[in-house]
Amino acid sequence: MSAGAGEAMAAPASHRRVRRTGKPSPRNFYRLALSQAEQLELSRAENVEGLDDEIALLRVRLKMAIQERPEDLDLLVKGIGLLVRAVATRYRLSPKARGDLADNIAATLNSLSEQMVLPAE
Radius of gyration over alpha carbons of the chain, in Å? Predict the structure, then answer.
């Protein structure tokens, strides 16, 4: 049954609860779309600070991409760009670490170039 002009449709109970307490936080907003298992993982993820785990994961995935598809330069450039942006974001979050950013990016690129062996033509 559709609501006519001037009639309001009832919101699901979970939405009504959020509205009564004020504006929903981003956590509540996303939580509504998740399964119970995903909600548990989200609760654990909310306690993680910084980007160190994500940067480490990007490095592992980039290394795998280099090993599995060394000829795919577009993929490698995108992966390196994503890693550089993540590292830059991490350092923007920490003023103390800003001075080390260039050194860390250079070390990352050097490490990747050592791992990357282009196929002979």
Answer: 22
- How long, in residues, is the chain? 121
Query: What are 72's two structure tokens?
Result: 């795919």
**Structural domain boundaries in the chain:** 13-45, 52-115
Tell me the two tokens of residue 45.
């993820």
How wide is the angle at C-alpha 29 spanned by C-alphas 28 and 35, nearest 5°? 80
Amino acid at 63: K
Cβ atoms of 59 and 77 within 8 Å: the answer is no
Note down pLDDT in tens along the chain; length 121 residues.
444 444 444 444 444 333 344 455 655 677 888 899 998 888 888 888 788 889 999 999 999 999 999 899 999 899 999 999 998 888 776 665 665 677 777 788 888 777 776 656 6
Find, among 102, 100, 66, the residue nearest to 84 by Cα: 102
